[in-house]
Each structure stands twice: as structure tokens, then as C-alpha cells.
Design a protein that fits this description.
By secondary structure, the protein is of the alpha+beta class. It has 13 helices and six strands. A hairpin with a 5-residue loop joins strand 3 and strand 4. Helix 3 packs antiparallel against helix 5, helix 10 packs parallel to helix 13 and helix 11 runs parallel beside helix 13. The longest helix has 37 residues. The protein is elongated, with a radius of gyration of 26 Å.
Length: 367
Amino acid sequence: MRILDRYIFKSVLTIFLWCLFTFFFLFIIVDLFSHLDVILENRVNLRVIIQYYLAYIPVIFIQVAPFACLLATLYTFAKLNHDNEIIAMRSSGLSIFQISRTVIIFGLVTSAILFWVNDRFVPQARFITERTQEAMENSSKKKNAGKELEVIKDLSIYGMQNRLYFINKFYPATNTMTGIIILEHDTKQNITKKIVANKGIYADGVWKFYQSLTYTFDEDGQLTIDPQYLDEEVMAISETPEEFIHQRQSTDYMSIADIKGYIMRLSKSGATTVIRNLYVDLYQRFTSPLTSLIIILLGIPFSLKIKRKATGFSSLGLSLIMGFLYYVFNAISVALGKAGIMQPFIAAALPHILAFTFAVYMIRTIP
């Protein structure tokens, strides 16, 4: 590694770590004060609070790392520009790419780390923090907090045979669920059957529903027979309690492998809307880590133009605005993809492709 590369890398890494530390500190302080009344009212144990914020670290990291990369890039090149070192580098024959190569490699490495953290740690971290937060909000004693951690509320998933499950409460420790609604659909997404049950228990490899009421509909949505009530009924449901936990509708709690498996399970169900949304979320898992690299590329042309103080502030503002617009366009594109207006892969990749193209064009226009 050249002396110049080491010099730039040291500056970028130092500012990046300082930004991460600052963002972590501010996030924890703000979040802690927002939950302070709940913590004091319920006398939440310090161990639970520490567990909550330790689990939240991966989530904070993937959210703030791109902005830390941008600020590190802007500060490093702004300082080099202020000290006339950029002019010296260009006078010695170095191109813009050679000057910014270290920062671009740093962005690639950061994007790879973000991909790994986002897939390996973030889903479980979101699950733990959500459960811990529910415990802090709903428990008044330490022993009650443990019980609250065993309850999953408002669970909804698509299962086999084109069934949509809505479960009010699910208790993994006893394999019990309450407040059950099951909607069965045909290949055209018309409801053919609705099952409502007070409670369901999984034992000996089968689900038993209690106080169940079954409605059967025709293609026009009309009842074909009177509702059937059973005090106890063995249900032909292939999903196990573990699958109800891991195959939840929200992809926030799924890894890439989980999402792929979920899509495979639903591929023959006819749930086209859900499958399309899952594909958008799946492709986003691959493209969203590239944000760190792209936002660095967006910052390079503006930071290298910084010379005077007034120009510096304007360039800094423009780079932040470009980063903001990049996030807004990404959100719009994802929404269009989930609405079926754009193909899932295009919806997930288009903002990154356009931002990358624009950044490269801006870099090439630097004299």
C-alpha cells in the first residue's frame, strides 16, 4: 500500500469509527430517554436494558454506517483540499480515481460487512429487541418480564394449501395459540373457507382446535352450507409451531435463506401479491448493502470541489441532499415494486444503478 493510500485510509477509518461511536451514543441516549418513564415505572432490571441495547447494535450499525461513510469521505477530502494536497496530487499526475481509490475500496469492504451483518445478525436482533421492548412495557416485575418474552402477538403468515393465518397470541413454550382466524383461497385468491377458533394446541404431531366455527364459500363469496361448529377438531395443518415462529410474514425477522424458503413454500399457493413483495424484499437484501459504496461515490465529486469556506458548505449541503434524494428514490422504487408497477428486481436495483451512474458521471466531469 502506498504512503498516500495509508494516509487517506487512516483518515477515513478514524472519522468513520468516530461517527459510528457518536451515532451509537446519540441513538442509545435518545432511545433511553424516550423509554425512561416505562423503565422507571416497571422497574426494569438493568440486565434487561443492557441486553436490549446490545441486541440493537447490529440494527443501528446498518442504519448509520452509510452516513458515517459519507461524512468520513467528505471530511477526508475536504481537509486534503483545504491543505492544497489535492492540487499537489493532481500536479504529480494522479487521476481522480487514483486519489479516491482507497475510499472506494473502503466502501466495498463496508458494503460486504453490511451484507454479512444484515443477513446474519439483524433478523435475530430485531426479534430480540422487539420481545425485550414488549417485556419492558408490559411487565411490572422481573419475573413477569420472562413470561412476556414467551408470547408472540399478532402473528400472520401464509402457509401451505394457500392458507392465510391470523393468530392473536402464540405461546411457543406450550405450543398454544389463541384468537385464530384461517382463510383458505383458491388459485384466483377467492376465499373458499374461513375457520375461526378460540384456541389451538399442537400435540403428538397434530393441531387440535377448540370452539371452532367453519364457513364455506362459493366463487361468488356466498355461503354454500351453514357454518359448522365443533367443540374440538383435529385440523389438517402441516405447519409446525417452529414454522409458525420462523415463517412469519414480516421479512424483518428473516435471513436470505428464510425468505427464499418462504417463497418456495408459497410458490404454488397462488398468493401472487405476497410472493411479489417477498421477491422485492429478497432483492433488497442484496442491493441495500451497496448503499455505503454508492453514497461514497456520490460524495467524492462534491468533496473534491471544496476549496473556499463558502464553497465547502455548499458542496457539503449538496452531497447530503444527493444522499437524501437517493434514499427517497429508493423508497419510492420499492413501493412501486410492491404495488406491481415495476418488476421486483428492477424496483430493488434501479435506484442503485441510477445513483451509481450519476456518481460516476460527476466524477468524470471533475477537471
